Amino acid sequence: MIFCVEDDSGIRELMLYTLHAAGFEAEGFESGAPFWEAMKRQRPELILLDIMLPGEDGISILKELRAQITTSDIPVIMATAKGTEYDRVIGLDLGADDYLAKPFGMMEMVARIKAVLRRTARTDRKKPLRLGELELDPQACVVHAKGRRIELTLKEYRLLQTFLENPGRAFTRDQLLEMVWGVDYVGETRTVDVHIGTLRTKLGECGELITTVRGIGYRLEKREE
């Protein structure tokens, strides 16, 4: 399923017609409000997102998508007015996978969609990551500790995923900053300490698995079952 968020009804209907003809399931929305309602019902394979929208604009929608654990990895192609390089740069910086400059041809749109889907396709379904009574499901983006579902922020989730993928490995704060926040992040390593603290608290007893390695950073203890 592909979601198209475009306020121009003529363009939106043409996009949907072309996608259906190309063999895709597709649904269109004129603004952010109905789009978010649809997101509660179904997770799309890809989102075509116009920047200029009534109400909440495309950049704001992209930011929110990338900030949520369950939607952060959905491919997004931004549609921008011709010549608006600033909007394209901002969109790509925020995590857009590609962009289309208006006016664009329908065949170009289909080609870009196929290219992005190929590039972002998961070659294998990741299995749940487990350590003791702590479990993270990468497919559903859900965490359970001692059978209880835990609600985490995106950064907390990425930290835990990094630890579970590397049990027993000690990470420096700088390594965690680069892996979770990105190489371009400008901030203090204290940020890591704060997030580790809240992550431990939310995980309850399972939070004790995340230990402090004096003079280095943190690791997830690999204990004998």
Gist of the model:
It contains 8 helices and 12 strands. With 225 residues, it is an alpha/beta fold.
Structural commentary:
With 225 residues, the protein is of the alpha/beta class. The protein has eight helices and twelve strands. The termini are far apart. It has two domains: 2-120, 3-Layer(aba) Sandwich (Rossmann fold); 129-220, Winged helix-like DNA-binding domain superfamily/Winged helix DNA-binding domain (Arc Repressor Mutant, subunit A, Orthogonal Bundle). It has a five-stranded parallel β-sheet with strand order 2-1-3-4-5, with helices on both faces. Strands 6-7-8-9 form a four-stranded antiparallel β-sheet, with helices on one face. The model has no long low-confidence stretch (mean pLDDT 87). It has helices spanning 9-21, 32-41, 58-67, 85-93, 106-120, 154-165, 173-181, 190-203, and strands spanning 2-5, 26-29, 46-50, 76-81, 98-102, 129-131, 134-137, 142-145, 148-150, 170-172, 210-213, 217-220. Helix 1 (9-21) crosses helix 5 (106-120) and helix 6 (154-165) packs across helix 7 (173-181).
